[in-house]
């Protein structure tokens, strides 16, 4: 290869490989989503919409499992863009006097007014 072309080749190689490396590094950190759709921390968990998603998760869980959990707060959360938004929230709840933490995943498509509780699992305190 002529030096000129060689340089060009490496330049192209860098352009191709860098984005793949960068997205893998970002997505792979949590072992979650790859490429598009990595989990991003929610910056402000006191936003009313985040609270609403948390309350929805608890209500939905109560309906499905005939429980009586009371929503207390969203402790932390992450979102993932995926044909809408996935919310993965750590929730504080009360079961009677007992404090219980859960991790809820809610899938929301705002424009379709669609929400679904994908998972709701107890976290050890
Ligand atoms: C977080 O959201 C709440 C409610 O919308 C708002 O009052 C507060 O100022 C926000 N905090 C930050 C740091 O943006
Ligand atoms: C919503 O999630 C439940 C499981 O939590 C599932 O059985 C149901 O099919 C889902 N509904 C839709 C419309 O995706």
What does it look like?
Residues 34-123 form the Cystatin domain. Pfam families: SQAPI. This is Cystatin domain-containing protein. Keywords: Protease inhibitor, Signal, Thiol protease inhibitor. GO terms for molecular function: cysteine-type endopeptidase inhibitor activity. The protein has 125 residues and is an alpha+beta fold. It has a single domain, classed as Nuclear Transport Factor 2, Chain: A. The protein contains two helices and five strands; from the N terminus they run H-E-H-E-E-E-E. It has helices spanning 3-28, 48-65; strands spanning 40-41, 70-81, 85-95, 98-109, 114-123. Strands 1-2-3-4-5 form a five-stranded antiparallel sheet. A hairpin with a 3-residue loop joins strand 2 and strand 3 (85-95). The radius of gyration is 21 Å and the shape is elongated. Mean pLDDT is 82; it is low at 15-35. It binds 2-acetamido-2-deoxy-beta-D-glucopyranose (2 copies). One 2-acetamido-2-deoxy-beta-D-glucopyranose (NAG) is lined by residues 116-118.
